[in-house]
Design a protein that fits this description.
The complex is a heterodimer of chains A (about 160) and B (about 70). Chain A is built from 3 helices and no strands. Chain A is mostly helical and about 160 residues long. The longest helix of chain A is centred in the middle third of the chain and has 113 residues. Chain A is rod-shaped. Chain A starts with a helix and ends in a 22-residue tail after the last helix. Chain B is mostly helical and about 70 residues long. The chains are: A mainly alpha (about 160), B mainly alpha (about 70). The interface between A and B is large, with 49 and 44 residues.
């Protein structure tokens, strides 16, 4: 009978040891699996953070580029406005210049015709040599037609 | 400032020369230019000269960009 008790006790001890081993193994397995899972989660998290940071940086760069282009466009618009204003001012200035010069021409003619000292000038023809080289007008008594060859001003090119 | 548009053709077209003076005097029976008219034509050339300088000033302002 004592052998049976001893055997049962031994079996009980063996069972206890077996259970303890399995328990420890199970816990270790759970811990290892959890650790691996945590590691993967941390990696995924880090990758996600990195992607978010890169996206933010790209968005910021894009915003900067857009802002610079907007500023450049507004600068060009402003420069164009000034250029248009300058051209408009030129048109007005041209009118003023033409009016002033017409007035000067009238005044000069009046003064010249009014002054007896200029009467000789008014009668004096420009000699053919000078007239031909200045205006292309050649009064030539040997020419058959009456007008001489009158060219238009300077040669254009 | 970079070129933002080509310069206006009004500023680069050649200025037409003033007309030749008319023939009011006579040289040996042929119509000729009076010396007075020749001198007065200097006025026309002076006005063309002023136009050219005004266009130059405009071109400088057009290409200078925005000025304060």
């Amino acid at each position: 009978m004592r052998y049976v008790y001893a055997l049962v006790a031994l079996l009980a001890v063996a069972a206890a040891l077996e259970w303890h081993g399995h328990h420890r193994g199970y816990d270790d397995g759970v811990a290892a699996a959890t650790k691996a899972a945590d590691k993967r989660i941390d990696q995924a998290d880090a990758a996600r953070q990195l992607a978010i940071a890169e996206r933010n940086a790209a968005t910021e760069t894009l915003d900067n580029v857009k802002r610079e282009l907007r500023e450049q466009k507004s600068r060009l618009e402003l420069a164009r406005t000034f250029a248009d204003a300058a051209l408009a001012a030129r048109a007005a200035l041209r009118k003023k210049l033409d009016a002033a010069n017409a007035a000067r021409a009238i005044d000069l003619r009046k003064a010249a015709h009014a002054s007896p000292d200029c009467a000789d000038l008014a009668r004096l023809p420009v000699c053919p040599a000078v007239s031909e080289r200045l205006w292309g007008i050649t009064p030539n008594p040997a020419a058959s037609e009456g007008g001489g060859g009158a060219r238009a001003g300077l040669p254009t090119h | 400032m970079p070129a933002y548009r080509p310069i206006d053709h009004a500023l680069t077209d050649p200025i037409p020369p003033p007309a030749t003076p008319s023939l009011h005097c006579h040289w040996h029976g042929q119509p000729a230019v009076c010396a007075l008219d020749g001198l007065i034509s200097i006025l026309d050339w002076q006005s063309k000269f002023q136009q050219a300088n005004a266009d130059r000033a405009t071109a400088r302002r057009v290409s200078a960009g925005a000025q304060p």
